[in-house]
Amino acid sequence: MKADLHLHSTASDGSWTPHELVFQCLRHGLTHISLTDHDTTAGQEEAAAAGREYGIKVIPGIELSAYDFERGSKVHLLGFNFQPPAGNLKALCSPLLTRRHERTVSHIRILQQAGYPISLGEVEAAAAPSSILYKQHIMKVFMEKGLSTAIYSPLYGKLFKGDGICGADIEYTDMFDALAAVIGDGGSAVLAHPGQQNNLDLAERLAAAGLEGIELNHVDNSAGERMQIEKTAAYLGLFLTGGSDSHGDLGPAIAPGDYMAPESLEPVLNRWCGERR
Predict the structure, then answer these.
(1) Which of 97, 103, 147, 206 could be disulfide-bonded to 211 (CB atoms 3.0-4.6 Å)?
(2) 22 near 235, Cβ under 8 Å?
(3) What are the structural domains of the chain?
């Protein structure tokens, strides 16, 4: 088993189409993968078809942009093995995608007013075939124009973080609503990269509402954090996952398979794959 359960495609803010992504996973020797685009299931059918073509097990997946309103902080949840047509997830994500797109369009206007050479058409071309625009697509245009050497460059931080002119976040969905949508579509919910958002302490509250796992292997989880994740998962009876969080050329230089799920997940993967026959 070589499983990467955190991957992104052009359906959100990755650089490979779902088919191209699955081919990249084949090149890296992966046996099981999940396409976990941000707040959308749009690439799932293409990824599943490519998986059948290349002999890779493709588990339906999604990464939900949620929020802990009690503490006032972001929470990312991964949803796996949900069942089509995923009506609960689509209903949850549709307004979120609209807000994200409209915010990016407003960012383009703000950048134009600040004197940056960018147009809506250029960003739409950078995002194609996706119709939803992300700030990463803005940065892709800036890279093509030589204004930045990477997506997450100092310019990205200056524009989109903190008090940057494009720093305001969209309104995210409540983490318990996100969890309920995954469960409502027959899926398994996992707390994503707790080291990135320093929110492992949420696991107990979320587990009481149906959380099934925690992402262990991820670039943003330090060695010490992984030890704490393992202890927390054992205490709460949760399984452990892992993945590269690869975005292709629209993210850090991390390839599919650089981070993978632990071997302990194999029985869960076998169950998920058996349910989909």
Answers:
(1) 206
(2) no
(3) 3-85+176-275 (3.20.20.140), 95-160 (1.10.150)
- pLDDT class for 169, splitting at 50, 70, 90? confident
Do residues 79 and 189 touch, judged by C-beta distance below 8 A? yes
Give the sign of the dihedral formed by CA 85, CA 2, CA 152, CA 229. positive
Sign of the torsion angle spanned by Cα atoms 171, 164, 63, 48: positive
pTM to 2 decimal places: 0.94
Q: Which residues of 191-206 are buried (b: 16+ CB within 10 A; e: fewer)?
A: bbbbbbbebbebbeeb
Mode of pairing for the β-strands spanning 32-35 and 3-7:
parallel
Q: Which two tokens stand for residue 167?
A: 């720093």
What percent helix, strand, coil does the chain show, rounded to 5? 45, 15, 40
- Rounded Cα distance, 187 and 175, in Å: 15
Q: Which residues contact 212 (CB under 8 A, 6 or more apart)?
A: 188, 189, 190, 238, 239
Q: What is the pLDDT of residues 69-122, one digit of tens each?
A: 999 999 999 999 999 999 999 999 999 999 999 999 999 999 999 999 999 999
